[in-house]
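To the wet lab folks,

You asked to see what we're planning to order before we commit. Fair enough. Below is the target structure as tokens, and below that is the sequence we designed to fit it. If anything looks off to you, flag it before the synthesis order goes out.
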């Protein structure tokens, strides 16, 4: 089973996302900020990461930039998940190394469609 890392400071969002990813055949791990996410990927690089923008300690944008610098950090598919809907926010996330983005609130169909587009579903 492929691993997925859910990075969001909201426990509810992490739980909802974990349930969706599990139902899509992933083994989800959850962390509440970018610093813990960096620790997690150094131990075990996931196939997919869904990352929130606005978090304490280390935000999602900084996490993605640091992830992409790590050995093997270019391999995970990164989906940026945010309530920010302005185009320049999305452009910044993609420029930092995100592969796609999802707007909050999201559901299983949105996640499935993004993973399908990115070739992450078997």
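Sequence we intend to order:
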């Amino acid at each position: 089973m492929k691993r997925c890392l859910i990075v969001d400071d909201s426990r509810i969002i992490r739980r909802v996302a974990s349930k969706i990813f599990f139902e899509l055949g992933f083994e989800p791990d959850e962390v509440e900020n970018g610093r813990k996410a960096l620790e997690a990927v150094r131990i075990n690089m996931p196939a997919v990461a869904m990352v929130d923008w606005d978090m304490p300690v280390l935000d999602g944008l900084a996490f993605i930039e640091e992830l992409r610098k790590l050995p093997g950090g270019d391999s995970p598919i990164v989906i940026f998940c945010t309530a920010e809907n302005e185009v320049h926010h999305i452009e910044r996330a993609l420029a930092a190394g995100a592969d796609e983005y999802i707007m909050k609130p999201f559901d299983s169909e949105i996640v499935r469609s993004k993973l399908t587009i990115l070739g992450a579903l078997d």
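Structural context that might help your review: The chain has one domain: 2-103. Residues 82 and 103 are 5 Å apart (CA to CA).

Thanks,
Computational group
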